[in-house]
Design goal:
- Keywords: Isomerase, Signal.
- This is Glutamate racemase.
- The chain is α/β, with parallel strands linked by helices.
- It is built from 16 helices and 10 strands.
- The protein is 42% helix and 14% strand.
- It starts with a helix and ends with a helix.
- The structure holds D-glutamic acid.
- The site of D-glutamic acid has 17 residues, from helix 5.
Amino acid sequence: MKTITTLILLATAAQAADLIDHVRSHPDGKAAFTVDTTAWSDADATRHLPIGVFDSGIGGLTVLEALLTMDAFDNNTLQPGADGVPDFAQERFIYFGDQANMPYGNYSAVQRTDYLKELILKDAIFLLGRRAWPAEGDTPHYDKPPVKAIVIACNTATAYGLEDVRKAVAAWGLPVIVVGVVEAGARGVLESNSDGGIGILATVGTCASKVYPRTISTTLGRAGHSVPLIVQQGSTTLAGAIEGDTAFPESVSSYALKEARALTAAYSAAKPRQPLQTIVLGCTHFPLAQDEIDTAFAALRKEDAYHDLIAEHRTFVNPAQSTARELFQELARAKLRLKPGESCVMERGLFYLSVPHVEEVGIQLSGDGSLDKDYKYSRSPGHFDFEDTKNIPLTPALMPPASARLVKERLPAVWKGLKK
Ligand code: DGL
């Protein structure tokens, strides 16, 4: 068993190496999945670049909302403490949602982690590069600004790709900061200071990686805290339903109740001594459904079997806030924050979304025009001249009405930027 696992790890490391070499051998950034490596010529040029944020879909917009609105630092002294000015007010962001290839959380269950890891590295390459597709037409443009930092605003992508993205950026010699959401989530648990058990709600892939129990245990342990009971529940449906994907026909509330019930049942089976208190929203889509999830736990608490297992008031941990703080501190440490009076090369934020590249020979689509599910989950890595998806500007009109409504209601700063 150990040998098989080692072989799989070596194989996926080799796939990342292939893509790293592909980028190295196309330094002008004109080919698909490549980067113009001259974009970070000096610290001054780098400082003026925007910050990239990516997720498998719209869920990472919850992290972008935190980045756009956080005021946890004094912008002049860089010390903790609000100063009435958003911490990233001068900076600009490029958001990318790889919606055509999502759910990311379901690749591990079909043993396609190798392809998922390649998708994650391609997401980073897109943000680093200048190449993007127009909404109409079949020729890529080369006017997208590269980025000075990458926020992996996806728990599944952080679990499977953070190390690869960091390794790749180092291999290409780029002065680019890479931040993920999982360590930030674990810090959020520590800072929540709550008693009781911890429940992780995440994708099946994130749960399979065990990244949260491991990171939370280490973080609490290092801070001298005892580690309470931690249970996980991997959802195959909730992120898709939040996206408004028609493959998930039930309401968000209905899926939220199923996941809350399954998490509580797992908690009960682990024979806890305290009630379940802290719920980690370990998928960036889930903060969009926090109300529905909390309502589900409140409903379960009314059932005799679950009453004593669930705390009366739950603490929700959304890793977005700690992620934003980590990015601020990393940029400050690297002296990559814009100085007073300086401005980004981009006047306003940009948003991109992947869609099927229907002209590509061999692509297989389902009835509603999305990638066919069997096709999507059977692809193998290493084909860098084949683009079955393309990244185009994201506008509210491209979002299913249900997810557009969620963003409008719950992420007002993002919505304002999206509508421009
Ligand atoms: N937003 C992703 C996360 O945080 C999950 C959604 C998906 O499965 O693609 O894990």
